Amino acid sequence: MKRMVYFFALLFPLAVAAQTTYSNLDDSLAGWGGGMNCTGSCAGGASATIATNTIVGTPSVDGNGSMELFFNGPSWTDVLWWDKLGVNNTATNFTFDFYVQLYNSTNELPNNVQALEFDTFQFIKLAKNKGTEYMFGTQCDYGNGWWDVWNQQQGYWVATSVPCVPFQPNVWYHITWNLHRTPDKLMHYDNFSIVQYDTTNKIVSSHTYTLNMAYPSGPLPRGWDSVIGVQFQMDANANGGQMQEYVDRVSLTVQ
């Protein structure tokens, strides 16, 4: 009997979870929320006076335009935008890949950035008012000078050993985050890479950072349903004012 099972396994290898890629998320406003609907307490700071996301022709990496994220507001303004991609409760591995460009009309480093946040999320609702929230939060924290990851269960940011180097304005950065979750409901921040370009789109620097950091997920808030997606958030410091970034070739690959 054991030999028969072994032979069967050779003929029919164990199934591997299907890989799905949600690509070019910046090319359409469909599915996107937030902006003026998630500023102030919703995003953990002060409220913007205006917050928009718009599809624009330039700048663009892929030639199909990009999504402009913009807000204006007082000191400590925070604004969050998200894209919900549908239900996928079986996915356990996530690759969040995108290009981002911080805009400044004077080509100088903006003096009003507190943090730039890039998140992947998976909400799993198992029964009425029961489920798990996996919020893979990441941010370049100008305030403390480090890249941070999110401890969902405890509700706070944890500094990594990777310095947060302020983004040069008006050039593209290609960022890729690799993440996974395990049956013990831990969120694993595996590694991420940052490729910086110049104004002629030549590579200036390329780095990959291995983290291997893991933190517990949390319970799904009452009334939330199963869904996966990605988020972008911009936080202003005490100077407040306008913040503007572009995102392009935004994709999420899950398996």
- Main β-sheet, in a few words? 8 strands, antiparallel
Task: Determine the number of helices (DSSP H or I, runs of at least 4 residues).
Answer: 1
Low-confidence stretches: 1-14
Task: Report the span from N to C terminus.
Answer: 33 Å
Overall structural class, as computed from helix and strand content, comes to mainly beta
Strand content: over 45%
Estimated radius of gyration = 19 Å
Series of secondary-structure elements, N-terminal to C-terminal = HEEEEEEEEEEEEEEEE
Number of strands: 16
Bulk shape: globular
Average of the residue pLDDT scores: 94
- Helix residue percentage: under 10%
Strand and helix layout:
Blueprint: H1 2-11, E1 20-22, E2 32-39, E3 50-56, E4 66-73, E5 78-86, E6 93-102, E7 113-127, E8 130-141, E9 146-151, E10 156-163, E11 173-181, E12 186-197, E13 203-216, E14 218-219, E15 227-236, E16 241-254
Antiparallel strand pairs: 1-16, 2-5, 3-4, 4-16, 5-15, 6-11, 6-16, 7-8, 7-15, 8-9, 8-14, 9-10, 11-12, 12-13
What features would you describe in this structure?
The protein is mainly β and 255 residues long. The chain is built from 1 helix and 16 strands. Strands 1, 3, 4, 6, 11, 12, 13 and 16 form an 8-stranded antiparallel sheet that branches. It is globular and about 50 Å long. The chain starts with a helix and ends with a strand. Mean pLDDT is 94; it is low at 1-14.
